[in-house]
Amino acid sequence: MSMSQRMSTATPAPFASRPLHPGFGIEVTDLDLSNPDSDAVVDALVSALDTHSLILVRGQTLSNARHVDISRRFGDLLTHVLKQFLTTGLPEIYVLSNVSEQGKPIGNHKEGWNWHSDLSYVAEPSMGSLLYSVEVPPEGADTLFASMHLAWESLPPATQTRIRNMTATHSYEGYYSRAFADRAPLTDEQKARTPDVVHPVVRTHPTTGRLSLYVGQDIVKQIDGLPAEESTSLLAALNAHAISDAFTYRHKWQQGDLIIWDNRCTMHCATPYDDNRYRRVMHRTTVAGTRPF
Questions:
Q1: CA 204 to CA 225: how far, in whole Å?
Q2: pLDDT in tens, 221-248
Q3: Closest by alpha carbon to 109, among 121, 94, 119?
Q4: pLDDT in the model for residue 13
Q5: How far is CA 26 from the centre of its chain?
Q6: Per-residue DSSP letter, 154
Q7: pLDDT tens digits along 3-62
Q8: Which domains does the chain have, with CATH numbers?
Q9: Best CA proximity match to 20, nearest among 146, 108, 151, 129
């Protein structure tokens, strides 16, 4: 069944929306999530995420507590391993920021400047993430999102057959050492919480049954069972294919944007901005998931 057929037979959503990209993603319009009276609509967004993979709601004014409450309707929430960036008083909120207060950063800076799916480096990766823009630069700092459903479905059949049952090793320690080489290394406790894990290269969406690529830059150390050179070449080719323009939506942030995405079938990548000139403060909650299959 095609995506259009699935969408046409679905129960009408209790909100107005428009597409963000021809193949995935919607912007929900005329919605105020700050009031608990909107919880029924939030529950409809939970269902809509399975179909659309990416949901944008602009113009929100969310307290930290309300952000967490909305996120909990999607599932249990995870606490990030970098505890030094849980600075709001609510441990469910992971802060992404270049701002320092009293000589200490309030959030992680230059996080996610590579294509990835959140927490793919744990045995049960995140189901989804909810990122809320508290303060955004007037230019730069866009976020790119790519549909891994579309990436898989557009692969040549021979490639699909070749990779269908392959696995790959995801390594947070390997990623961290490359992305943050100028920082203190992970502590023993942090390493113990993030051992290397093995996941399928092609994963099945547990709700829809739809297949998607499950790769990523930097955090995926190798495709298992292949000689090193072949692994490196294949991984590079799959990553390059996965982030093709045809599968990608570029989001230009406005203050008050809330973006919800499905980590089981998308990748995303932050982009640079003038971090000496502008401030950026983003709050992310992370919804627990299940082991990929």
A1: 21
A2: 999 999 999 999 999 999 999 999 999 9
A3: 94
A4: 75
A5: 16
A6: T
A7: 434 444 455 678 899 999 999 999 999 999 999 999 999 999 999 999 999 999 999 999
A8: 3-287 (3.60.130.10)
A9: 146
Query: What is the tens place of the pLDDT at every residue in 107-121?
Result: 999 888 999 999 999
Q: What is the total residue count of the chain?
A: 293
Alpha-carbon torsion angle 157, 206, 265, 117, nearest 10: -120
Pair type for strands 266-270 and 143-147: antiparallel
Residues 95, 108: Cα–Cα separation, whole Å: 6
Residue 29 phi/psi, 5° resolution?
-110, 160
CA separation for the pair 151, 246 (Å, rounded): 9
Instruction: Quote the DSSP letter at residue 247.
Output: G
What is the pLDDT, as a whole number, of residue 225? 97
Q: Assign residue 169 a region (left: φ > 0; alpha: ψ between -120 and 50; beta: otherwise).
A: beta
Calpha distance 107→94 (Å, rounded): 7
CB count in 10 Å sphere of residue 151: 24
Which residues neighbour 71 within 8 Å (Cβ) at sequence distance 6 or greater? 77, 92, 130, 285, 287
Q: Which residues of the chain form beta strands (DSSP E)?
A: 16-19, 26-29, 54-57, 94-97, 100-101, 104-105, 128-135, 143-147, 167-170, 197-200, 202-204, 211-213, 220-223, 248-251, 258-262, 266-270, 281-287
Residue written as tokens 């007037």?
138
